[in-house]
Amino acid sequence: MGAEAFEIFAIKYAERSGHRGEMFVRGDPHDGPLDMDYFVWALRSPSHTIVVDTGFGEPEAARRKRTFLRDPASSLALVGIDAATVTDVVLTHMHYDHAGNLDSFPAARFHIQDVEVQYVTGRSMSHESLRHSFRLDDVLGLIRKVYDDRVVFHRGDGQLVPGVSLHLIGGHTPGQQSLRVNTRRGQVVV
After folding, report:
1. Is the pTM of this model over 0.90?
2. What Cα–Cα distance (Å) separates residue 68 from each residue in 53, 60, 71, 80, 86?
3. Distance (Å, rounded) from C-alpha 123 to C-alpha 127?
4. Which are the contacts of 135, defined by CB distance < 8 A and separation ≥ 6?
5. Tens of pLDDT along 4-52?
6. Which of 45, 118, 135, 187 could form a disulfide with 4 if both were Cys (CB 3.0 to 4.6 A apart)?
7. Between the CA atoms of 43, 180, 132 and 11, what dihedral angle is there, to the nearest 10 degrees?
8. What is the DSSP code (8-state) at residue 163?
9. Which residues does 40 contact at the CB level (< 8 Å), separation at least 6?
């Protein structure tokens, strides 16, 4: 079967206002105003619906002083997607703003890179400066999904479905991955 064309939806669920110096681990010498928006993504073709990242919830927004606009999972309904029926969720990495709300996707398999799970469960997390962007409950939630046979581990690049490939890019976290998506207008990287 050839690669289908996907529609891509970016759904904003939270935001924050601040300064560059407070948004980077060691500050930023070019301090100035910097706003940040938080999104989950949905990819839809005639045969497949894939959610990319699952966001965070209202309690985490309050804890981190983010403006919470809407629940990421229920926001998918804005584009006609029921989170309860989604069968594939790609977690680009395990930071709190990408990997919460896993239980909002009861039918999903979660796709993640091996090295990302090794990182968030390994010795690096004994350093507060490295673990501050992760939530233990999100990591434990993913591990529970492993024990429920609902996690698909990837080792590097590969095809998810025709028209969507995963690419290990690292950098932001060791196991960060992106997706290349076939659309009517050409290839798009998410």
Report:
1. yes
2. 16, 9, 8, 21, 23
3. 8
4. 56, 60, 96, 99, 100
5. 999 999 999 999 987 666 666 666 666 677 789 999 999 999 999 999 9
6. 45
7. -30
8. T
9. 11, 13, 51, 52, 53, 54, 55, 72, 75, 76
